[in-house]
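for ur thesis appendix - RNA helicase. copy paste whatever u need, i formatted it the way the template wanted (i think)
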Amino acid sequence: MPSKFSCRQLRETGQRFENFLVDRGLDRETDRERLRTIYNQDFKTSFGTPAPGFSSMLYGMKIANLAYVTKTRVRFFGLDRWADVWFPEKRRMKPGSEISKHHKSLLATIFYDRTEYLHGKHGVDVEVQGPHEARDGQLLIRLDLNRKEVLTLRLRNGGTQPVTLTHLFPFCRTPQFAFCNGDRELPCPLGPGECYELHVHCKTSFVGYFPATVLWELLGPGEPGSEGAGTFYIARFLAVVAHSPLAAQLKPTTPFKRTQITRNPVVTNRIEEGERPDRAKSYDLELSMALGTYYPPPRLRQLLPILLQGTSIFTAPKEIAEIKAQLETPLKWRNYEVKLRLLLHLEELQMEHDIRHYDLESVPMTWDPVDQNPGLLTLEVPGVAESRPSVLRGDHLFALLSSETHQEDPVTYKGFVHKVELDRVKLSFSTGLLSRFVDGLTFKVNFTFNRQPLRVQHRALELTGRWPLWPLLFPVASRGVPLLPSDVKLKLYDRSLESNPEQLQAMKHIVMGTTRPAPYIIFGPPGTGKTVTLVEAIKQVVKHLPKAHILACAPSNSGADLLCQRLRVHLPSSIYRLLAPSRDIRMVPEDIKPCCNWDAKKGDYVFPSKKKLQEYRVLITTLITASRLVSAQFPIDHFTHIFIDEAGHSMEPESLVAIAGLMEVKEADNPGGQLVLAGDPRQLGPVLRCPLTQKHGLGYSLLERLLTYNALYKKGPDGYNPQFITKLLRNYRSHPTILDIPNQLYYEGELQACADVVDRERFCRWEGLPRQDFPIIFHGVMGKDEREGNSPSFFNPEEAATVTSYLKQLLAPSSKKGKARLSPRSVGVISPYRKQVEKIRYCITKLDKELRGLDDIKDLKVGSVEEFQGHPSPLGGLRGRVSRPSLPSRWAPWKSFKAIPPL
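the 3d part is after this line
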């Protein structure tokens, strides 16, 4: 039976009960049953009006985050609001109150020039009395939970002239600070030797990092207009720090050292190359088509700084105006190759600039200890595990001996990457270096990036003109030529599609092929089964079209692996997964190794001949690896169908790599191959670096461009045209309350919550939920972002400890009321930073005794947003970056929200 009291009434009753306890000296009581007795026998009888029950009152306080409640204990957070009882109201200063817009603006700017405000002026300075630690211009007050400390900030005029304190602003957004300035009113004149005291009372009931700023505004000595007169400011930056025991073990192991950017990498005329890693022991795949270098034009490199300044097209020099005109012209078939090639060049130039952030100075190398690799050197590369920088097998870097950097023409050593292991790479250098090498020899290291993906994208653009693909890239109509009779009966491999009309509709149109030459789009919001639909369509094509040959692609290895796993169930002998030789075989799922190009006997990748690969009905690759089939010059009509999953995640030229040179548009009676794009433009899009390419369209995938600009894929009064596009509507993953917000904001309220009721509600009664039947917890953590060593990646100890605490509650072996049994493989923890991923993994596998003792704890997936793209876990542990005010620019507001797979 629902409560007759509102949440506000429950909260207000709880707060009155708090005051009742304080008045009677019972504020330290935490035993739930004793508090129940006091509430029912003493408080309610004096209440005067009908009062809610004890449990209802606790519920109201709990959901308002005003009480911590367990089966046996209750702690009211309001009782810790010590500011109300330590000193009278008139002596307290309200942080941030009555601050003018000018002063708020000033507070926002002082962080950019702390030094100016930390130093005293005109002999006026701040003395600090009380327990604190000065670090990096900040006063740290380290506290145990619920322990009080008082800091006195004494503004003293140590000069020879009087000054006037006109304003004093304590500024903080958390209740861990209370400020008291005594009885002295402002403005307050301070003669030589006089002081003004501010008492800062510090206490916290929560672990975390809680910053505050105090700003003094003073009027300088002397008459107006004289030297020294005028307003000046002094500031102090405070922080209360309370660590949990676990977070204390996660503190930085070594101080962070920012890498100095090398604007001009040192590559001399004398270059000695190491040995390239073997391409493959058995590389029989032909290389018939040449691949150009496609370097950016030198003149474009010179003009880029001017382009980035944003000069108007009407006032810019002629060359700049011409380039800007190309960028600002909408993408059409007539400018297709020119504009996209220009955007790729601009992106590459930005990549050249950005890679310099990762160059290393005076870093040591050591011999590789593995006996089989006596000629390799090992280099520690912080951040390589999260592709900062991105280093793969076969890439190269340049190294210069630190002792020779000042020579006129030193030798530059070109080292090739043979292996990448966590935060280190193993390199092959010339015998000239190896003959003089000793462990610990230091180098200046310049990184490079792999240009192969850019080169194959440029070639794909070139091929779009050689085999005119405009009817496919800018479709205007279908030619209506079916591949099967309209009355054909399709017996589904996955019977669940029979109850989903949208999935069934999409699959039938794909198999019939009547959309050709236009691509068919499966618009699949999260959890709606777009990959399931695509996989079923592939199986039906193989079954009903004996002459069909299929290329199935995804932008990432994990996406292509998933396609292989799903197809292998019913097509074990018809599929072949082609992996790039740079792929670490340890990262390849075991169940797909029998049908991929890894030869366990040889311990290496193999690349069968074109003739052999043509025997398979389905080839599965990433988009970039599909370029090997183009280089082998597969017959243009060999692939009848090309499927691209997660198509919204790739740049349009990247998708073209798997299309141009492998598919053609034929005459009206035979429209050619069928292209199928599955994805969701509301999720993560392509990752770009250059502001110009972001602004002028390279961030659009082929799927998103067609959905946004092509009339065939526009939504009409009766919905989308099912001949060209199907929007999947049934969500099989999320609880309705989780689905509701993204559904209303981004999917026009059309999504339907169809997840299994038992699965989606198995945690709805868990006692750890602030609100029953609402399976979301928003837990704000005031932690401090840290970095360590040379790693550019951030981590936050308190957030990692909080995530670990929730994992312990969810995975604890003993069952609790309202909690279903849960396996670690059912949980996902998401973090945008690799170092945070590393710290959380360290917590659950090394530091926490309960979690590390679980047999299958290593099955718990901790990874970045990109790693979870399209591969959600039943339960998501979202670790948001609330501590840092800035986010990567690539995370547009709606794409940031949709980047997290809903539960």
